[in-house]
Amino acid sequence: MAAPTKHLSKLEPWQDPKLQPYVTISNLTKTFNERLAVNNVSLSIYKGELFSLLGRSGCGKSTLLRMLAGFESPTEGKIFIDGVDMTNTPPYKRPVSMVFQSYALFPHMTVEQNIAFGLIQEGMHKSEISDRVGAYLELVQMKGYEKRMPYQLSGGEMQRVALARSLVKHPKLVLLDEPMAALDKKLREQTQLELVNIQEKVGVTFIMVSHDQEEAMTMSTRIGLMNEGRILQVGGPTEIYEYPNSKYVANFIGSVNLFDGILVEEQSDHVIVKSTMMEKNLYITHSAAVPVGAQISVAIRPEKVMLTTTPPPGDHNWTSGVVEDIVYLGDVSIYHVILPSGTKILATVANLVRAAERPIQWEDEVFLYWKPENGIVLAM
């Protein structure tokens, strides 16, 4: 009998040493009046990615995007797109299109004319323009809207027209500056999935700026989290969420419980952390490389925390507390529990029964516990 064939998981582009980056940002720095907006950023982005630059307002993400577009000149560093140095190339000569937060549609032009504008400027033949515009109207599901003016469109429809106008020129790179910021929550969620589907169909590399962590987590192949002009961590949504590399990243992506303490024991398969915020020591199977005696933090996501009215077994990873508040969100409830140390811990619990039937209510004494693999050790 022949040996069974092994199915190896496919490497992602950024994991494959044989593949070259499609966009390379090398030691890029931008200074405005001696203030560092972008501080020595280096990134490798691969063909077909939807890469998000995520961070708070003023962190440098939009400035980085504008340098990629050519609207800002770097103070230092280089930008390569498909192996070509674009650092000093003017915007109109770059193989790049941009979708702005305001969509920037021409108010005096129809949908069809807006999409065709760039092709007309390039001197393309009328019949080819007509065919290409028709194909992209179909792609963004705007067939039948050709003669409408921008003021006759909803926010979601304008966003689709702006995207079609960017894609119709067949750019190598599409830049999106908070493209769904003007949409309401329901429409934003729908448009996010539509945008991902369109990007996958055309196979163009997208780089998106966002301050919305849910948006970046939903849409991105990878995320670059920025703060004060620097990239703090680059990784897929799961990696960034489950394995943050710092307290800042852990706090920025989703909700998190943080316990400050000292690493008191290190073994090959676990570490023990002592924290004055907890009644019991923390036993963790995933750890950063830190020495015994180091001051560290342990991050635990609220959905990993379990609640009970009886003491859990064992001498690690549990504590008592009193329910201070319960935030009802429909599918889940978030329990705010005050520990004897005064620390507040969040526990996210699925609403499997109606609110009135919950076994744990306000001011109940409870115990919180979690599994050893749910804690992440972060260096201070």
Largest sheet: 6 strands, mixed
Radius of gyration: 25 Å
Count of alpha and pi helical runs: 8
Q: Class of the largest domain in CATH?
A: Alpha Beta
Low-confidence parts, pLDDT < 50 over ≥5 residues? 1-7
The average pLDDT score comes to 91
Taking strands numbered 1, 2, ... along the chain, how are they ordered across the largest sheet?
Answer: 6-7-8-3-9-10
In terms of structural class, how would the helical and strand content be classed? alpha+beta
CATH architecture identity of the largest domain: 3-Layer(aba) Sandwich
How do the SSEs run, as a string of H and E? EEEHEEEHHHEHEHEEHHEEEEEEEEEE
What is the straight-line distance between the termini?
56 Å
CATH structural fold name of the largest domain: Rossmann fold
User: What portion of the residues fall into strands of 2 or more residues?
Assistant: 25-35%
Helix content: 10-25%
Query: What would you give as the CATH superfamily of the largest domain?
Result: P-loop containing nucleotide triphosphate hydrolases
Number of domains: 2
Count of DSSP strands:
20
Which overall shape is indicated by the principal axes computed on the Cα atoms?
Answer: globular
